[in-house]
Every structure is written in C-alpha cells, then in structure tokens.
C-alpha cells in the first residue's frame, strides 16, 4: 500500500516481512513451504519453522526496544505478525521478571533468582503467546475459523482471541470438565463442544476433523498450524534475556507438558547469540525441566538414560501439564543433555508446597504448573544438580486463580475471633 | 543522601521528592502535616492530599514516558514512591486500554469506545494501585506492619504486597467469606483473621484497633493512611490520557463503591490540564457513575436531586462494590454534576448480561463490577444520557476469575456430542 520510495532504513523501524523461509522436518530435515502442515510427508516427523539467517541478522536491539511492550516487539524473529493491523492478538507478553531474593534465601541459593511470571498475560497463562502467533499465521493463511482441543488454558485463550478479533471459534473439551473451566471459555461466546470421552478422545477427533472438507476453513491452533503455534514460546526466552539487560541467565527451570516450551526457550537463547543480540555466556546456559510425578514421561526417560519416551496415563493435580505422550519430549531431553542440565518431578504435596512457597516469598500466586516448577527447583538444589551460586530464572506459566482447589484445603484463616478488642487480645494479636 | 551539587535538571530525569505538601480537609479546608491521619480534627471531614503546584508543574511528558511501564512513571504526581528502592509494590498499572469497536457497534455508539482493563494488574484488580501507594507511604511514615479490612480484592492485594516486601501483614475478613476468597489471601502466608460478624463489624473493629497502642506500628491501608491510598486511583486517569496520546476522553463510565475512584479519575484529568500535560478539551469531559441496584445509595441521591447519601444495606452479586455508606459519595455526585454526567445502576441480571457482552465483544472477562459498568453504559446510551457520538472510556476494575459464580449458571457448552465424525455431523457442525 505504501509507495515504492526506498527510504533509508532506520534501526528502530519495525520489520515488515516475515523472516521465516520454510517448514523443516525435525526428523529428516525435509523442507516444505510455509503452510498449514504439521507433519513430514516423508517420515511423519514434526515440522518446525526455519528462518532466513540474513533476515534474522537484521534485527537490532534498538528496533526491539522501540517496539510495543508485548510479544510483537520480537516480530522480526517470529514467523507471523509483522503487519500490526493483521494480527489476531490480545497483545500478550512482556510479563514481569520478578526478583525473588526471599525465595532464593529459603532454598539456599546465593545467586539471584527471578520468576518469569506469565500469569500476567491477558488470559493469565503463557498460552496467549502461542495462540497469538498461531492465529495471526492462520489468518494470513486464509483460515476463517479458529479451533482447539483443550482442558483449560488453551481453550480460554483461543476463545478470548476469537472474541477480540470477531472471528468464529469452536473449542472442543472433554464432557466431564469442571464447571469453572467451562465458564472461563464459554463466557466469550464461541462454539464450545463437550465430547462424551476423555481428552485423548477429543484430541483424536480434532485430528480427524482437520482432514475433513467441512473444516478446511478451520485452524486448529495445536494441530494444523502447530509449527507456528510453537514458535510463540520463543518470546519467553527473548524477554528474559532483554529484561536481564540483554544477557542470558546461567540456569533456567521450565515446566514440561509436551516439552515444547523448554525447547523453544533454548532455541530463543541460541538465536539471540547467533544474531549477535547478546554475547554468548562464557559457561553457556543450563536448561532444567520440571514435570509432575503424575505425568513424568520425559523426566523418566532422561533418568533412564534414553530418549525414547514411554507414554503414561496422567494423574495428579497439575492438569495443565498432563500430556501423557509428549510430542517434543525427545527434543527437550536433547536440550537438557546438551546444556548439562537435568529434569525432575514433584508429587502433589510437593506441588502444593511449591505454590505456597512462591506466594509467601514473592507475592506471585501460581497455578499448579508453577508449583511444579518451584518444587522441582528445590529438589534440584537439594540434589546438587542446580548450582546455587549461579543466576537462575524460574518460569511460572499460569495463574493460581485457575487452580484454587489445589491449595484450598491447606490454607485458611490463622485466627477466628469475636469482633471486639477482647477477641483480638485473646487471640494474642494485641501483643 | 545525594550530594548538594545543583546539576541542571534533565527533562527525563525522575522526580526525587514528593510533590505533596499537606493533608487538607475536604469539608472545612483545614490543613495538616503529611502523616497517618484520615479525618479532620475540626469537622471530622475526610482528608485529601494537597500538592505544591510548582512541584507538579515541573513534571513533563518526556519524564513520564522515560519512566517504568507502571504507576511509578507518575511518581512526580503522587504523594509517595519517588525513591524506587523504598517502594512497597507489585509494580501495578499501565494496564491495557482495549479498543472495543464490536461493543460500540452493539450498543449503537458511533464514536470509539475503549475498555481500561485493570484486571491486568498483578492481583487482578485496581486495588493494587491504591495499595502500592498506601504501603509505600506507610513505610515512609515508619509503619512496620500492613493491615486492612476487606472481603476480597483489597485483601488479596495487601497480602501479596506484604509477601513481596517481606513485611508482616494482618488482614481482617468476615468469618462467613466464601472459601475461594479466603484462599486467594491466605496463600500469601500473612495473618488472616476471620471475625464472627459482618463486614461492618470488621470495619468497626479495625477503626478501634488503629487507636490502640498495640497497633501503632500498623498501617491499615484504607483507615489511617487512607488519604495516600486514595491518591493511587489517580493513576487510572493519567494512564487513560497518556494511552490516548495525551488526550482526555469526552466521556468516562466508572464503577462506584465508596465513590472515590470516580473522584480521583476526575482529579487526575484536572491536574493534567492544570500542569499543561494535556490541552483542556473544548467541551471538557463528562463523568458517569455506575452502581449495582443492590447497593445504589450514590446514584439514588443524584436521582433524588440531593447530595445527602442515605446508607443502604447492600445486596446483590457485585460484592466488590457493596459499600452501603460510601465515604466519597457526595464528592462523586459533585464531579458528575459539574461535568454534566449522570449515574445509573444495574440489577443482577443486567450485570450478568454486561459481563457476557464485554467478554463476547472484547475478549475481556470482567468481575461483577465490570459487568455493572458495561450494563450501566448500555442504560446511559439507551436513555440518551451518554452521547453515542463522543469517545467513551469504560473502566473494568477486576477479573472475572474472581467471580465465576456470577455467570456459571448462564454459560456452558453449546453442544454435547459423541467423539465421532457422526457426532459432529449430527450436531450440525459439519455444515
């Protein structure tokens, strides 16, 4: 729409075109055009977005810093969203990096600890990042309806994004979902389809629907546009580095469901070094993964010295991490091994204690996934796996208000008294 | 602590000293030093912070824009918080101003409508603003314990702020509070005192405790440091103006509990004009107030043509607005009359419809107070009180996750099907 005059490029002018060049198979390396495809036609391996290195190398700190205070400041490093007017987004991201000295002290960590608090996103989980990128790519690819299978955070985010954009949505959920989780999606007014079956049944059905003619106009965020979706998680890594003053932390502790978030934060750090936006740390960085004991197939494989994931039937309170057959598990193991990290898992009691520890020491109230991460942080320190003398960033991916039941039985009033000074005195509150 | 060298003042250097000069009685104009005092010794009227006009006049747009993306960018216009290291804060503020074209269209408003979405604050309500200012002032005044009486948002915010700052807290709540609201305060680990009695009983007790020797170290955010607390609400007005490109909107619709938020947004606009940070709009601005039908003493007084508030016993689902004897009601009426505005109230069904309308058209899921505001916006348009040809900003002060029950009976799955293509087809979802 603009004229063809070649004005000199300012270093703070936003990037106008996508730096993505292809989808590449993570298994065999086969390349495909940037389209709605998530598996390799050759080997059925998962596809990942690949970029033009020259395009990435044009991105500058000044350009990023002049951008909006959300994920789109990194549009020059993402596969979609360069045209602000064409975004489908709630403008998530640039969530707080909270200094956590009291948490560090309580765990015996002498170096700084920070909490990357993604509960501050618009629908209060990191899913807003991946959904914004997926749906923006989807609209660019011509899709006119947005869909997903989900039991919680993803459903909230897709329905809210669709409402903001004025695009029809259709969210598929297991029929026995708790009412609270239904309300937080249904309130946005899209189609909400309850399936008589388990989450696995819902997922399988979505895999079938995406192949039908009737759904050819529909982008399932974590199915047919999954490669774009997954790239959204890179922004968590970019933000941490920028918020530390363009520096990569020595250690990161990241919750794992599919394992994809962990691999993308690692990828983000690598890209920043390759582009030259940050200096490569002398000792590199170390990536740690956290699962719940009720769904620990990735950590178990690592512990057993293999990278073959044996699927499990998930149990336990950390439902947002309950993916029994994690698609990116092997890649997460690769990243953790390559960087000298480790994985561990926490049981339900440890998760509850992790939520309370984080809240008490930082004022951040995390959902169960955040409890998993803090509990595993503690285990890694206690086991000598995580170096207490090195700076560490812990990722909280969701909001405690969404999983109130996890701690409802454990916390309550510390005193019950009559409404009188005597009541206060008898409770020992008047010194 | 800094040296006495008089360096030339940069326009982007942060303000180092408080511009506040005194506490002034809103009733008789008596002045008092800046201390923990909330009522006039002469006439028992409420005290308000007064500023040195010369100090305010030194604040520049460049200085604000160079500041952090939170309320503290306006430290030069607040009574406390100029020293970043001495703040007690979760760094709230600079919440999204969301364009709402679909909401406008549905209500027949032809000019732009924006939603100021304060659910994006750290504990997901506007209370984080007032608590940050109150507790920062309190620490500066020497208080070593933080307290409040509350039934919800305020309790969450005080407990979370105290946890972040590592300061003891003591929160007083009615003994019959729902468990969900107890959890969201108790999880932060401070003292939580359940009182056998109503919220009025709790409030009365706090008023007594603040006079005791044993509580002389304790700042009750909305009692003894209330004048500072109330100033935090000004930041909502500053942000709206800055986010509109340093412009005051023609019309604002604001929920009322004590009525204070409305008066402070109006005060913020006046200050910006006086300082010269924005031009005075040709037609001024118009302030509208929203209450729930279950607690409408301010709107009722306005409708009756008086400014004498007759207290009510609150009922209805908009509990965060349920103050039956609103301290700033007469001042809210003054602001609304002076600016040519109006007030109205919405019943529980209208509030539920307001929550759903906002979610469906903007992707913002508001607590009941937000439903009140949207419902009243609709009434004001329908009654011809609000000009549909003028730009309007609607304030959402809290998060839908905190009041799920309000809409839980109204929204749910749109379809229930078997996990098969036939199930999808039979539901009419396959075209």
TrEMBL record, chains A, B:
Highest taxon, organism lineage: Bacteria
A GO molecular-function annotation: L-serine ammonia-lyase activity
Sequence positions bearing N6-(pyridoxal phosphate)lysine: 127
Protein name as catalogued: Threonine synthase
Family stated for the protein in its record: Belongs to the threonine synthase family.
Coiled-coil stretches noted in the UniProt entry, renumbered to this chain: none
GO terms under biological process: isoleucine biosynthetic process; L-serine catabolic process; L-threonine catabolic process; threonine biosynthetic process
Signal sequence residues: none
Tryptophan synthase beta chain-like PALP domain mapped to chain residues: 89-398
EC number: 4.2.3.1
Cofactor(s) for this UniProt protein: pyridoxal 5'-phosphate
Keyword terms of this UniProt record: Lyase, Pyridoxal phosphate
Source species of the chain: Mangrovihabitans endophyticus
């Amino acid at each position: 729409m603009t004229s063809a005059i070649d004005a000199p490029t300012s270093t703070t002018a936003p990037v106008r075109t996508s730096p993505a060049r292809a989808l590449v198979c993570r298994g065999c390396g086969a390349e495909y055009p940037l389209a709605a495809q998530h598996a390799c036609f050759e080997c059925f391996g998962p596809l990942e977005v690949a970029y033009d290195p020259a395009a990435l190398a044009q991105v500058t700190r000044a350009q990023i810093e002049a951008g909006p205070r959300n994920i789109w400041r990194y549009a020059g490093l993402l596969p979609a969203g360069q045209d602000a007017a064409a975004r489908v987004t709630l403008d998530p991201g640039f969530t707080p990096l909270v200094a956590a000295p009291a948490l560090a002290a309580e765990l015996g960590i002498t170096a700084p600890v920070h909490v990357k608090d993604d509960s501050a996103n618009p629908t209060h989980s990191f899913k807003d990042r991946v959904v914004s990128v997926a749906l923006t790519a989807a609209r660019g690819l011509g899709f006119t309806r947005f869909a997903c299978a989900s039991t919680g955070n993803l459903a909230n985010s897709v329905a809210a994004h669709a409402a903001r954009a004025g695009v029809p949505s259709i969210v598929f959920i297991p029929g026995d979902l708790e009412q609270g989780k239904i309300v937080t999606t249904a309130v946005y007014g899209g189609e909400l389809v309850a399936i008589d079956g388990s989450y696995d049944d819902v997922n399988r059905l979505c895999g079938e629907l995406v192949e039908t003619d009737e759904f050819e106009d529909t982008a399932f965020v974590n199915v047919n546009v999954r490669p774009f979706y997954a790239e959204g998680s890179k922004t968590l890594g970019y933000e941490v580095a920028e918020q530390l003053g363009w520096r990569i932390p020595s250690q990161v502790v990241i919750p794992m469901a599919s394992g994809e978030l962990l691999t993308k934060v690692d990828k983000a750090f690598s890209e920043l070094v390759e582009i030259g936006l940050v200096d490569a740390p002398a000792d590199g960085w170390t990536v740690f993964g956290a699962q719940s004991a009720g769904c620990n197939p990735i950590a178990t494989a690592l512990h057993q010295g293999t990278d073959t994931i044996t699927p499990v039937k998930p149990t336990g309170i950390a439902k947002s991490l309950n993916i029994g057959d994690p698609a990116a598990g092997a890649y997460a193991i690769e990243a953790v091994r390559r960087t000298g990290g480790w994985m561990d898992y926490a049981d339900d009691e440890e998760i509850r204690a992790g939520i309370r520890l984080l809240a008490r020491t930082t004022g951040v109230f995390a959902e169960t996934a955040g409890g998993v991460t803090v509990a595993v942080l503690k285990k890694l320190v206690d086991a000598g796996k995580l170096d207490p003398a090195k700076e560490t960033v812990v990722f909280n991916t969701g909001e405690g208000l969404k999983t109130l039941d996890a701690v409802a039985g454990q916390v309550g009033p510390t005193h019950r008294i009559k409404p009188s000074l005597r009541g206060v005195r008898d409770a020992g509150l008047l010194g």
